[in-house]
Amino acid sequence: MNPLAEAWRGRGRVVRLCDRQIFTVDLPAQGTALLPPLLVLHGFPTSSFDFHRVVGGLAAHRRVILFDMLGFGLSEKPDVAYRLAAQADLAVALTASLEIDRLGLLTHDIGDTVGGELLARQMEGRWDVEITDRVLANGSIYIELAHLSAGQVFLLDLPDRRLDDDALVDRSTVLAGLAATLGPGAAVDDDEAGAQWEMIAHLEGHRLLPRTIRYIEERRHNEARFTTAIEEHPSPLTVVWGDDDPIAVVAMTGRLLRARPDTGLHLLDRVGHYPMIEAPDRFLDALAPASR
């Protein structure tokens, strides 16, 4: 296994949640715990590994909890229809198993939408936790503004089923698709790219991409639920956004600010869709002191 991927595997463990095998990482605060635990929700088609460059900084003064969603990373990858509610169920089950009833949220990409579902449940009284603070990173929170990539459109045009082979979706096509989302200032080396591929291809997860990408259709259909919760939940909101994202374009942040004027906005120039990978130091600097 790639050394970066192996190191990340070593930081976590697989636990059973909602009758599935789910990879989790639970890091204690490195110093005095000044803030409640932070729950981190990753993006598509990647995994919690996206945060490996920043997790130490995130854990400076708070416990940090991450997990790979079902069908992603080192978690179980069944051949089923994937639903955002089921991913949210995993977050609820994980926090319950850890007896956490007060937390912050850090979300990215599909994680923004899963976070929206969690926020909606919390406001409905269906998730008995206190959400103390939120950080939202690049994701299609306003789906009509999203500029879907050629790769995303290709996957959405495929039938919602597991690929019989990997001729259509292989290492080179997946990594090329990820590279196309990065900003002009990105510096992602071969080890990083190789680790991302290993996480995606674990348990032949790349063959499930036509299934896991259906969250985009679900996001479009239920946008009012997810986006309203993101805009209206009363917890303090910080947005850290790569302003060269070709998919979740920076115009989304302007629309969010109009709906939620008290949002703390940090735009990272020459950074694309993965600010925590492309500019980890700047990403962490933008969070201080909101969620560190």
Task: Describe the structure in your own words.
- The chain is built from 13 helices and eight strands.
- It has helices at residues 3-10, 55-58, 84-97, 110-123, 150-157, 171-179, 190-201, 209-212, 215-221, 223-232, 251-259, 275-278, 280-287, and strands at residues 12-17, 20-27, 38-41, 64-67, 102-107, 130-137, 237-242, 264-268.
- Strands 1-2-4-3-5-6-7-8 form an eight-stranded mixed sheet, with helices on both faces.
- The radius of gyration is 17 Å and the shape is globular.
Query: What letter string, H or E per element, gives the SSE order?
Result: HEEEHEHEHEHHHHHHEHEHH
CATH-assigned fold name: Rossmann fold
CATH superfamily: Alpha/Beta hydrolase fold, catalytic domain
Helix content: 25-40%
Structural class: alpha/beta
CATH architecture assignment: 3-Layer(aba) Sandwich
How many domains would you count in the coordinates? 1
- The strand order across the widest sheet is 1-2-4-3-5-6-7-8
Average pLDDT works out at 95
Mind describing the biggest β-sheet? 8 strands, mixed
Shape: globular
Count of strand segments: 8
β-strand percent reads: 15-25%
Count of DSSP H/I helices? 13
For the record, give the distance between the C-alpha atoms at the N and C termini, rounded to a whole number: 31 Å
Low-confidence stretches: none
The CATH class is Alpha Beta
Rounded Rg: 17 Å
